Amino acid sequence: MSSLTLTERSRLARLAADRTRRALVARALRSPLLSWRYGRPAAEELLLIPQELRTADPSFAEELAHGQLGLGDAVASIGTGSIFDVTAPSEAWSRALFGFGWLRNLTAAGTADDRALAEAAIVTWIDRFPPKSASTAWHPDVIGRRLTSWLTNIPFVFESIDGPTYDKITDSLSLQIVQLATRWRDAPSGYPRLEALIGLLTASLCIAESDDNLPAFENGLIAEIRQQVLPDGGHISRNSEVVIDILLDLLPLRSCFNARERPFPPEIEKAMSRMLSYLRFMRLGDGTIARFNGVGATPFDSLATLLAYDPAPESELAGTPDSNYARLSAGPMILIADVGTPPPLEYAGAANAGALSFELSIAGDAVFVNAGTPGPANQDWLATARATASHNTACLNATSSAKLLRNKLLNQLVRAAPIRYPDVVTHTLFKEAERTGLRASHNGYERAFGVTHRRELSLSRDGSRLTGEDIIGGPDANMRFARDLPYAIHFHLDCTATCRHDDDPAAAIIQLCSGDAWRFQATGATLAIEDSISFTDLAGPTHTSQIVLRGASFGETRVNWSLERA
Asked: For residue 76, which of 144, 222, 267, 480 sits 20 to 30 Å off, Cα-Cα?
């Protein structure tokens, strides 16, 4: 606990107390005395089948036939035994296995063998993992995902099923609803709790005579949406990928409400509209979602599906004052910058040390992008990906502007180590006759080095030029630092772009995928072209390039740079 501030200790104590309270409520509801509240609904009649908006991969069945099971961005060899005999290569793989989201891939393949495999997997799971099991299979969010997955794919699985197997599966559905009704409160903060509640509501709507407790579950979901979805449509974790996942779950749930002729909660409807607008705000010109705070490879198919549901696609957000991202656009240029502090501890497990970092696209080409977040199969790279040096911003003394928090109690409450600092980030947008821009600062380096990082970014009116100024300084412009402070200002290039030195050593030429060439030049620092790594390629970490401006600061230091068509 010594590494935590008094405020953080207080918040951690409240988190622990809330988790204990939720666990006690869940345990009490599972007792014989109170379990009558949720009954044991007969799942013999299915009233409707929920939509599946996540894209299926028919090649999954072929890989499975060759003894390979790829889940959660990890691949395991299953040999000739059951998929449940495999030692899970990662926690994410295990959660994906027990969530049964992969059933949609077998449904997409659609053969009799795939149907037999899906049926056998469900029956084997029922036999091997009773509710009292301590397995990951009975975590509340995993139950929620499994209920939705089973119900979505039941038409395929049930097509030629026999009576006893039908009874076994429907009985298990009933049991899982009861278990989740008592356990959803014990799900971790954030998306896992939403996943549990949405699965519970979906099952309650799809199965006859299981909606007695629907109002209570509905109120629980409304409360979580109110807590997690910010007024500007972002998620409290500041992770845009979570917004995509929530919408992929909420849209089918809304269809279930409509099919049952029940009013969908207006507050959730409004939140969905805000989230869709937010996703448009966070898109670059190449269609990707800006890689901040946990965002990895953009799921283009899912994003396109979601944006097709946007009731007001022409309306644009003026800004995101709650999520704290800034967007500049002029001509073909779009720039998005991170101008926020880390989220609350329980939601900061994927947050990055990327204060004042930005991403830039020109027309349909991504130019400068952050390294992004590696998939579950490459978690060894996670600390590197979260570091300041993996973002398009200034890094002082090879040290990140944020600090990872590691604490025994905290690790029990949050699935990944959260970050803290900077705790003060300011920004203002400005518009002048010939340019539009952003001025911002953060204090992430104040405690370690007594300095702040200030940055100005601006686009020319026609989008033909980006200019920037990075200032490293103390409270007094004439202040002399105790020692020289080395700095590196990083500009990571997209994998599709190449870079070479210009004749001028202070300049470089960037060649975009479209064939256009742009000239980057700088004053006040030494320009170098160095290796970089992108973590957003589906094949894993990919080598790319970066422009780095290096120097040493002994007092207030200004580095100016620009990007314009060559």
From this structure: 144
DSSP-derived letter for residue 256 is H
**Consecutive H or E run containing 553:** strand 542-553
**Is the pLDDT score of 517 beyond 50?**
yes
Tokens 């990140």 identify what position? 400
pLDDT digits (tens, 9 = 90+) for 549-560: 999 998 899 999
Q: Are 332 and 363 in contact (CB under 8 A)?
A: yes
The predicted-structure confidence for 437-462, as pLDDT tens digits, reads as follows 999 999 999 999 999 999 999 999 99
pLDDT at 229: 98
The answer to whether residues 338 and 388 touch, using CB atoms and an 8 Å cutoff, is no
Q: What is the value of pTM for the model shown?
A: 0.93
> Largest alpha-carbon pair distance within the chain?
84
Q: Structural domain tally of the chain?
A: 1
What are phi and psi for residue 5, nearest 5 degrees?
-75, 170
State how far the Cα of 328 lies from the Cα of 332, in Å rounded to an integer. 11
Q: Estimate the crossing angle of helix 191-206 against helix 140-157, to 10 degrees.
A: 40
Residue 292: C-alpha distances to residues 42, 275, 298, 362, 503 (Å): 45, 16, 12, 19, 34
Contact yes or no for 498/257 (Cβ under 8 A): no
Q: Does 46 map to a domain?
A: no
* 390-401 average pLDDT score: 98
Give the per-residue SS3 of 169-216: HHHHHHHHHHHHHHHHHHCCCCHHHHHHHHHHHHHHHHECCCCCCHHH
Q: 409 Cβ partners below 8 Å, 6+ apart?
A: 1, 12, 16
Distance in angstroms (rounded) separating the CA atoms of residues 172 and 42:
10
Domain extent for 455: 325-565
- List the Cα angle 160/161/162 in 5-degree steps: 125
Residue 8 lies in a domain: no
Contact 42, 52 (CB under 8 A): no
Domain CATH number, residue 560: 2.70.98.70
Amino acid 52 reads E
Answer yes or no: is 553 within a domain: yes
pLDDT of residue 405: 86
Collapsing DSSP to helix, strand or coil, 342 comes out as coil
Cα three-residue angle 271-282-457, rounded to 5 degrees: 135
Give the pLDDT confidence score for residue 313 in this predicted structure: 85
Residue 81 lies in a domain: no
Q: Are 377 and 74 in contact (CB under 8 A)?
A: yes
In single-letter form, the type of residue at position 337 comes to: A
